Amino acid sequence: MSKKITDTKDIQIKEKFEERYKLLAGKDYKKFMDISMTYLRRSIRINTLKISINELKKRLPKWKLTQIPWCKEGFWIEHKKKERRDIGNLKEHQLGYFHVQEAASMLPPLALNPQPGETILDMCASPGSKSTQIAITMENKGILITNDYKGMRLKPLGINLQRAGLTNTLTTLMEGRRFKGFQFDRILVDAPCSGTGTIRKSLKTLRMWNPNMIRRLSGTQKQLLETAFNNLKPGGTVVYSTCSLEPEEDEEVVSFLLDKYPNAKLQEIELPIKRSPLILEFEGKKYNKEVKKCLRIWPQDNDTEGFFVAKIKKDI
């Protein structure tokens, strides 16, 4: 178990949040809250466009790197003498040899399975962790459109793309739902969400949480996923992901698309990771049974953030 956050005594858990998550997590509610009050393990993803995995390990003799099972370029990292945590200040990070990225955040690009030479869209790209992962997997070949909807969000995105040494990316500024008439091989929709899987990274999530926010976000997420699906080539793939554990933002959004488009086919996500059962019914709503093929991860499953990932193919 990771180190406990020291300033949790003043954290107030809203009554409605507690009721909801006792229902969602069941007997694992205490495990969920306990791990949510601990620090995340630091993790990195090595940029194999610039350096090999073995070369980077040799450059970091004071650091212990532990393989992340589901990502061959991903490693949990800790200082051998426990003297440092500031991996972002390492020279190798500034040179773009690795990207600081949470281990569960590496899952959506892995599910997307980008190929060199394809035309791909990352609809909600900033700050660029997943964009750089996709572009590196593409070996700098093809075109990756990295889009976000606020100008201020393009700054960290641009810095990360440049640091990684990428030449196959174009950046656009528009609302994701405004894409129309494009044809992509693959699209990632890492949708804006409530972030209830990331409490251990940001305790303010607990203060901001409310049911009305969840409902608003769910509407936006449905728009984004539907827009992405309509901009896929026949036979193309869209991956929908959130760092939320809310069924309204996860299973409900995917179920909406499946029910509306008969040619939307959910794909199995075969990755070596511990996962939790999908939620097929919540608050009187029954979801499409196919959502059981999605990936739902609670923080206690793998000592990571919580994440939800769905892989959908557009049938010809």
Report on this model:
- By secondary structure, the chain is an alpha/beta fold.
- The chain has two domains: 41-101, Sun protein, domain 3 (Alpha-Beta Plaits); 103-314, 3-Layer(aba) Sandwich (Rossmann fold).
- It has helices spanning 15-25, 29-36, 53-59, 91-94, 107-112, 129-137, 151-163, 204-208, 211-230, 251-260, 299-302, and strands spanning 43-46, 63-67, 74-79, 98-100, 119-122, 143-148, 169-173, 184-190, 232-242, 264-267, 281-282, 285-286, 295-297, 307-314.
- The strands form three sheets. Strands 5, 6, 7, 8, 9, 10, 13 and 14 form an eight-stranded mixed beta sheet that branches. Strands 2-3-1-4 form a four-stranded antiparallel beta sheet.
- Strand 11 (281-282) and strand 12 (285-286) form a beta hairpin.
- The chain is globular and about 55 Å long.
- The mean pLDDT is 95.
Termini separation (Å)? 46 Å
Q: CATH H level of the largest domain: which superfamily? A: Vaccinia Virus protein VP39
The CATH topology of the largest domain corresponds to Rossmann fold
Tally of alpha and pi helices: 11
The count of β-strands is 14
Largest sheet: 8 strands, mixed
Task: Tell me roughly what share of residues is in helical segments.
Answer: 25-40%
Assigned CATH class of the largest domain: Alpha Beta
Name the average pLDDT. 95
Rg of Cα set: 19 Å
